[in-house]
Predict the 3D structure of the following.
Amino acid sequence: MKSNKSLKDVLESFRAGDITFDDAEKQISGLRIENIGDFARIDLGRNIRCGMPEVILAEGKDTRHLIEILMHIAGSGERCIATRLSEDQAEAIIESCRKSGIACDYNRVAGIIILGEGPAPEKTGGVVAVIAAGTSDARVAEEAKVIAEEMGCTVKTAYDVGAAGIHRLFPALKEVSDATVYVVCAGREGTLPTIVAGLVDKPVIGVPVSVGYGFMGRGEAALASMLQSCAVITVVNIDSGFTAGAFAARIANMVKNNEED
């Protein structure tokens, strides 16, 4: 049973006779929990309850458990997403999908795989811009991009436009000027989100990236810099592309819904 995107969708589907009363009740409740063995409880109601799909963090998980979780979700007719995949995990999942006849789409740069035969998310009309300071920041930027797209947004990107060559930023901003919210990823000293926030009149989400070395390396200097920003920005944790992409999509989708109302 596919989760609808909003309470309004559920009620309209019931009125049209597309789903039964019992199905409508289950989807409205948003509490579709399914156990997998004794190691996982899958939240299949997250999309209807929170407006975002169930996303599985692969990092630290046993590969056999990870595959079982993903196959269970995909087998129930849902699209499912796994983030922070190692190359070995990705190869094992792709092989399991091939044997099971399950479609999958692997973004190697982001370390994300999407499984399932369910339809791609409907476009909401929300527009998110994802900007990366350097090519080393692209992996986190791509994670944000994939998640925002899975929440129905159109995502426009501008990569390798960091402060060290600031002249690259201005033409790039013109190309993403119709965005409702900006996700800006930067490592090293993490300057770029502050610069972008000083140039646009939309919300900016800063994402510190674990690029850098020596004192305050691994994204720590970038995080500290963004937290001390003199511009009005919000900041997520180091390498939290998923959080930034999901939060940006929520903002963009909410703005679009309000425009339509």
